[in-house]
Amino acid sequence: MWSSFLSRARPTPERTPAPAVQCTVDTSEDVAVSVEDRHVDISELQPTIVLDDSGDATLLVGTDSAALQPVQVSSTAMTLASPVWKDMFEKHRKANGAIEVPLRDDEVDALYIALRIAHLRFHEIPRKDGLTIDALLELAVVCARYDIVKLVRPFLDLYGWAQCHYPDTDAGERCDPAWFYVAWTFGYKDSFQRLTRFIVKKIGLDEDGNAIMDDGQKLPKYMPPGLLVRFVSVHKPRWSTIFPSFKVDKLAMRPTISSAAVVLLLSAAPVLAQFPAEPVGLKVLESRFGDGVKITYKENSLCETTPGVKSFSGHVYLPPGTADLGQGQDYPINSFFWFFEAREDPANAPLTIWLNGGPGSSSMYGILEENGPCYANPDSNSTRPAEWSWNRASNMLYFDQPVQVGFSYDTLQNITRDLVTGEVTLLNETTPVPEQNTTLLTGTFPSREANNTAFGSVNGAVAAWEFAQAWFQEFPHYLPNDTRISLAAQSYGGRYGPAMMSFWEEQNQRIENGTLGEEGYIMHLDTLLLISGCVDRYVQYPYYPEQAFRGNGYGFEAVNETTYNAMVESVPECLERIQNCRDAAAQDDPENLGIDAGVNEICEDAETYCRANIVTPYNQYAGRDYYDISTPSPPPFPPPFHEGYLNREWVQAELGVPLNWTGSSPQASAAYRDIGDYPRDNWLDDLGFLLDNGIKVSLVYGDLDFACPWGGGDAVAKAINWTGSAGYASAQYAEIQTNDSYVGGLVRQYGNLSYIRTYQAGHAIPAYQPETAFKIFSRALFNLDIATGTESTAGTQESSTYMSTGRPDPNVQFDAFTSERLTYCYTWDLSSCTEETVDAVLDGSAEICQYLVVDANTTQLFPEVIAQCRAGSGGNATAPGEHSNSTLPEFEGGAARVGGRAWTFWSGLVMSVVVSLTL
């Protein structure tokens, strides 16, 4: 997960309106220097206060404007109390053993309380009602500065100091705002939450632009680090319009503008901002072939909770040059995998590799949205078991590729991100971390180098082969009796899949005939499933206009007839440009490696024209989701809750990953698109090659999908040239019996080739129709007819080849969609939010809970989550273990933090409590 810079050092309290004080004691400079270095005049000193008769150190306490007070102390007592004090004494011990340390920056009375506690002089500290709120605030600052929160915290409760000094906010009045920093420091969770509600609602500015509460009261002298600046900076563009002289460093706020946008900002803060901790508990396997390849992995308890079923996550490291295809792979590849054993008899189950598309999308979408053992819950902090997980039938290996996608990386790069502007800055070893004077977050990601990833589907297939060779030969927890390996790829997987499987089969044949030139592992390839696959642009582009207008099987007109006609009229030129691309590639880049700049440009231009004239009109005018024509845009399905879940710190620790999660990599996407990978050909030839070598191919499409329409998928199946083409052309479309009461779609099947139209399913078919998708998958895997699962398709003679029977075409018509889905806004995925919803957040009328904007729809869809937030026990700090397949960390306030790590938790609380506001 991400975290503020201040999570890497002790937090500094933020002053209002002056800059924050330095909270981490710098023991190497002028925080604690000797009397001689500070030129202390003896006339400045007052009579010595003795806290220890045998004390070996003298503190000179006071400010530059007051006479210094000598205090005789025990360095031993103070060293035991505080590591900061320990370092201070060690650095300033004189040759004769004496220690003199001036402390000019501390509020005297607050420091005396802390020193008396450290010296066990409890009878000299104030009793109940003996501290004003201002004195308590200064004590909090001292405790944070010297890391003695744990030492002092018990006395707040014992002597009655821990009170707001006003009735609390929920009772109808308020705590003093100064309590905000006190509660943050000492870990008073509930009152911190209540006071946050109050401050977010009431903060404003006076006539001079100074930040104040709306009743004229000044803001507290200290604030939790960075929060006030976050409150302000998110509104900077709007306030700058209202007040041209507005400056963030003045902390100016307009009282009539509420701080709802801060909620959106802070909802990302605890998960978007953190340098992930070094993974622990990893096992490291060096390749036995001595080629520098290694596997790091750990067993985890996430997601799959079936007793006795194991899961492992990790990385396969490939050194530079391992996957070199003549293009100079001069960067390392660390490919992330998550392996789940089959729920039943894993030793005798086959294995299936799953890939999401993009190009550049993480396969974690598949685990937590589609066909994995669990779904992410609406709280984005827990999961629930998936009944129709594909590991019911197969061992499952989910693989983030190409490099820089998901949790896969080349080299690690720390970055900063400005959440207001979106600007990203790379941090090198010699680059100082900039001061946090605005909404600035940090994280660890892949290098973001444009050239450090696979260029196109063919190059990606080579890297995937090297990953597979290492994993299947070295990973010790996969020792199957059934060695069949299948590949399921979605969306852009219509290119990934054919390119990978055909290359892998070619490599298998080279190993068998001895021409590979190296020892290799033969992958016993069984089935290729393409889920909503965009395989061949020339074949499929003509079906986009039909999917948008009446030809979708529902009679639905997503665009009007004028727009439809314009889309249709653009098809001929689109196809001509695609053919020009293919002709150029055949001449100058026949292997589709992206090595000829001229070919790349021709192919990229072809795709640009086709998308602009055939796809974009739907996106512009339909008002419907790109991946589901039945759903108004923005989409509410599949739920995006995995995005918050995968960026939880505890989840990343369980997975053993050293970086933040990238759902979609712009570098990987650009690398494929820039060479014009989309409109190139050979993918149909690859499918024919696979079929002729006994490998099954299933093309599965959802009839609600616009991204890769089902009509185009039907055309792809017909266009494959293989030895069974004539038999396939004679097959008919049979109903798919999902169960005794439900027909899940239509299938046309001949031998090893099947095409499926899945009813009432969008792009992510397993999410829409989990049982139907599983039945298709398992029947294909185990050589059963897709229609019923009762007939064997494993015949080898022409006379015994299975052929489906039924209707002559797949054009079954429905009167209406099954149901209209309720939309909602999830702040981790702003594409799910309407412009009106975003405006509501910015103008202060939004309520946010667990990254969900609360409205009638979210209240209806997620009543438990919303109720928990409004009860004050929810937010994004979900109760440990609740609705979770894993144990969450217990609550730790400032009193339990180490090295300032509480900042991440407390900034999360700020965000979580605001969700219950009606701003």
TrEMBL record:
Listed GO MF terms: serine-type carboxypeptidase activity
Keyword Protease attributed: yes
GO cellular component, one term: fungal-type vacuole
Annotated metabolic or biological route of this protein: Mycotoxin biosynthesis
InterPro entries named in the record: AB_hydrolase_fold, Peptidase_S10, Ser_caboxypep_his_AS
Region described as Disordered: spans on this chain: 1-21
Gene Ontology biological process: proteolysis
Gene3D superfamilies from the UniProt entry: alpha/beta hydrolase
Family, per entry: Belongs to the peptidase S10 family.
Protein name: Carboxypeptidase-like protein s1
Source organism (scientific name): Alternaria burnsii
